[in-house]
Each structure stands twice: as structure tokens, then as C-alpha cells.
């Protein structure tokens, strides 16, 4: 019997020249991009096969979403998260960011405050701003070990302001990599319920949990959390399907659902393409073995990054990671703006990381590194990062 792994994550995939946002946004042929949250792996074979079958049909007209699409989502949530869903709760749209915008536009009034736990996914900021609302920061607290926690005292103050009507919850959190515990979500829910704050949960990273941790959907915490929240999810991060533009909204409240559905139509983001539909069905019904192999591989990659920073780059500190494939690295010891750190790495070492300031003022002094790539490519990225700190390197003080 062969000892070869069932799924291959070690063979690099050539993406440059494929109209790839991650690789083709730079004109530098030597650039190594480890920035945007996009994996360098081929998706699950079951998804590829489903798309090939659909392509062979040869007709790609207007597409209706079949019942098996919704059945796949319901089955996935039941098996993976122990969360029962009703078919009526589900809406679909072209992405989680369009979903967030549609929700805010449907339910908010101009000038309403939307609480965000910074540092936070940067598209939260544009969704709030473009919807005519105000961003209200509830910065996360960091302990001496770099571990992030919710500042519930500050959240209580912000939620008590009647002008602040929403909270955008990143669960699990991007970029800090926290998997919020049930008790934390319960406390957050109690505060929001007490003050009538609607929780909008972005749970796109919910399947990319490190071994030893478990994702708790906010709406599954208790009945009050289910009634007072709206959840956005997609297979795009889990199976690397962002280009197929498929996402879902889970909303139990019928009036909210009616208004959000209407807003999705107003925004003209109410049609899915046939490939996105088939990809989701295949991923959620046949992709679990691949996902488990992916999670194991990512855990190994994180261990490599963690060890490299600890042993080779002690001036940098990696934030304890519980989910995602995004390492959040504390560079504050350099006493240099994150934008300058990232620029120096790009210009001198051809390494593209995300500057922390993108995620709000609370991200200043940090960089984000995407380690969802082959081991060889990851080692090359670490080599380039380390070179920046050697004498003569872009971040060397010698």
C-alpha cells in the first residue's frame, strides 16, 4: 500500500499569469505574495470534478438555485457545527462583503453606529462607510503573552449608546486568529441584547479552526443570540473559491430577512453563477476529507512559522493562533510604522505581507502573513523575512 498522502498540498501551483489578484497585482516577477487571504492550493478534487461536469454541459445561462444547494448548507452546519438550520432562514448573494453591506443598508439608518472590534477585517470599514453609517471601535485587549480578548467594559459603554445599533462580529477573528469561546459569545450576546444591538456575525473562517479548538456559531449560543443576530458564511475561504462569488446569509427573523432579501435585489447581487452553485454543493457534500487534510497541513505550517519566529527572529512576536491561516505578527519592537515595514519587505526582499494599519489603528506595528502555501514556498518566505534582519537587510539596525 502506498504511503503517499491522499491530497497533495506540497506541489506548488503556478498562479502567476492566471489573472490572480494575489500573484498578478505586482509587476515584480520575483515577488512572493503572502498577503491577501487566498490559499495557494488547488481546491478539493470533488469540487474540481463537479465544475468539470458542469463545464462539459456547455450552456451557462441564467441559473436558478436548486434545493440541494440549501440541503448541502443545512447538512454542513449540522455535521460540522451542530447547528440546526431551517431552509427559510437562508438567503444567498455574491460574497460575504456584499452580504454585510446589504444587511447594514437594509436595517440601518444613516448615521447609525456600527461597533467593530479592532484590529478588524478592513472591508468592515468600507461596508460601514459606504452604507452611510459610523464606525465605532471597541478595541480588543492584548495580554502580556499577546493573547487577544474582548474588552467587555468598553463594549458595554459603546452598546449603551442608543445611536450604536449594530455590532460586526468576526467569528473566528481576522486578523488576530481568535476562536471566541462560548462563554465570551454569551457575554457579548447579553450586552447586545440588553441594549438592543443587532449582531452581524462574519463567520467565513469558521471551518479553518486549529486542532484543539472548536468554533461556536454565534447564533447557536442560545435562543436570544439566534433571534438577535444575522450570520454571513461562505465556502470561499475553506475551499479557496472566492472567485466563484457565492455566499449565504442566515437570518431567523422574518422581517429582517424580507428587508435584507429586498436589499440584495436592489444591489443587484441576487444571482449566483452555475459554477458557484455546483462548487458549494460538492464542497459541502464531498469535501470533508480534503478539509481535514488541509487543516492538518495548515497546523504544520503554523508550527513552522511559530518556531522560525521564536528561534530565528525573537524581535518579532507571533500572536497565539486558534483559527485561520493568517499569522498576526507583532513588530512593535522595531518602532516603525507597519506600512514602512511592509514596503521595505516588498522593495528589498520581494516579500509581500499585509501591513497591520489596514485593520485599523489597533493594528499599527503589526504585519499579517498568509501561510496557506506549500512548505517549500513557506520556507522561502521565512528565509526572505529573516534576511531582512541580517546585517544590511531592510529591517536591520546594523
Q: Given the helix and strand composition, which structural class is it?
A: alpha/beta
Largest beta-sheet characterization: 7 strands, mixed
Strand content: 5-15%
Mean pLDDT: 97
- How many H/I helical runs? 14
Q: What is the H level of CATH, i.e. the homologous superfamily of the largest domain?
A: Type I PLP-dependent aspartate aminotransferase-like (Major domain)
Rough shape? globular
Oligomer type: single chain
Number of strands: 15
Strand order, largest beta sheet: 2-10-9-8-7-3-4
N→C terminal distance: 54 Å
Order of helices and strands: HEHHEHEHEEEHEHEHEHEHHHEEHEEEH
**Poorly predicted ranges (pLDDT <50, ≥5 residues)?**
none
Instruction: Work out the count of structural domains.
Output: 2
Radius of gyration from the CA trace?
A: 21 Å
Just give the CATH class of the largest domain.
Alpha Beta
- State the CATH architecture of the largest domain: 3-Layer(aba) Sandwich
CATH topology of the largest domain: Aspartate Aminotransferase, domain 2
Helix content range: 40-55%
